[in-house]
Amino acid sequence: MQAYVLPKGVMFSILILTILLMTSGVVLLFYTTVSHPAELRSQATATVRSLQTASTNSTVTAQAQTTTIAQGQARAVATSLAQATIQAQATTTAQQAIYTQATSGTPLLTSTLAEQGTANWDTYSAQEGGGCSFSDGAFHAAILGKGFYLSCFAQGKALADLTNFALEVQLNPIQGDAGGVIFRANDQTHTSYMFRLTHDGYFSLDARTDPSHGTALAYEKNPLVSFAPGKKLTLTIIAQGSNIYLYINKQLVGSVNDTTYSTGKIGFFASDTTNPTEMAFSNLRVWKL
């Protein structure tokens, strides 16, 4: 059988076609195994980065909003505190103005209480022991009977019916349980207001309806109330209409609005709850308002 030899041109064409097919395969293999996966990875990375950027932007925005809210709340709190401080300062200033105005005029009465004067104070001995007396440069109210209190009134005409007034006196709690000042009092019916201080650091304002009963209009523990031996306390009462202001050492400790009593006498008292009690009063001043 005779062999057939292809012409050179045909063989060359076949060779070229073979090379092209091989090249296409290599290119396809490179695309499917290297290039395309790289593109996919690049796209995935870009997507992740885009999501991360969006998340970061959201976080930053949320943080900015939270910071703005917190700053707004802080400013609101600061403003509220500032307003409260201003109001407190205004109240303190007004209260101090009441004290200054009430005690700046010429007193109706000035007395050291070392001796009897125009006030004409009660002086007597109590059956339970003690009494109302002048001694050691002061006026003393003392009661030695447990469960009793003793009152000492000014009977002078000028002080008989005080309505609007300011009163200031020094109290030396020598011993015992309680004592203080009586005002707008009727010593016949035993009705009065009582500004009372106790040995355990309390003060009160009571509207007394008889020797044994009354209503507490104010009652509070206060560090200014101290019964230390030899320590004098300056008590001030300002009564004008239904408004009553109470001061200890020239600092306001309480105020009430009450219409129970409108006029009456002034006096001092000592109260023996469980222990013999003696209170000494000195340097009294009374202003008519």
Automatic annotation (TrEMBL):
<keyword id="KW-1133">Transmembrane helix</keyword>
<dbReference type="GO" id="GO:0016787">
    <property type="term" value="F:hydrolase activity"/>
</dbReference>
<feature type="transmembrane region" description="Helical">
    <location>
        <begin position="12"/>
        <end position="31"/>
    </location>
</feature>
<feature type="domain" description="3-keto-alpha-glucoside-1,2-lyase/3-keto-2-hydroxy-glucal hydratase">
    <location>
        <begin position="133"/>
        <end position="286"/>
    </location>
</feature>
<dbReference type="InterPro" id="IPR010496">
    <property type="entry name" value="AL/BT2_dom"/>
</dbReference>
<dbReference type="Pfam" id="PF06439">
    <property type="entry name" value="3keto-disac_hyd"/>
</dbReference>
<keyword id="KW-0472">Membrane</keyword>
<protein>
    <recommendedName>
        <fullName>3-keto-alpha-glucoside-1,2-lyase/3-keto-2-hydroxy-glucal hydratase domain-containing protein</fullName>
    </recommendedName>
</protein>
<keyword id="KW-0812">Transmembrane</keyword>
<dbReference type="InterPro" id="IPR013320">
    <property type="entry name" value="ConA-like_dom_sf"/>
</dbReference>
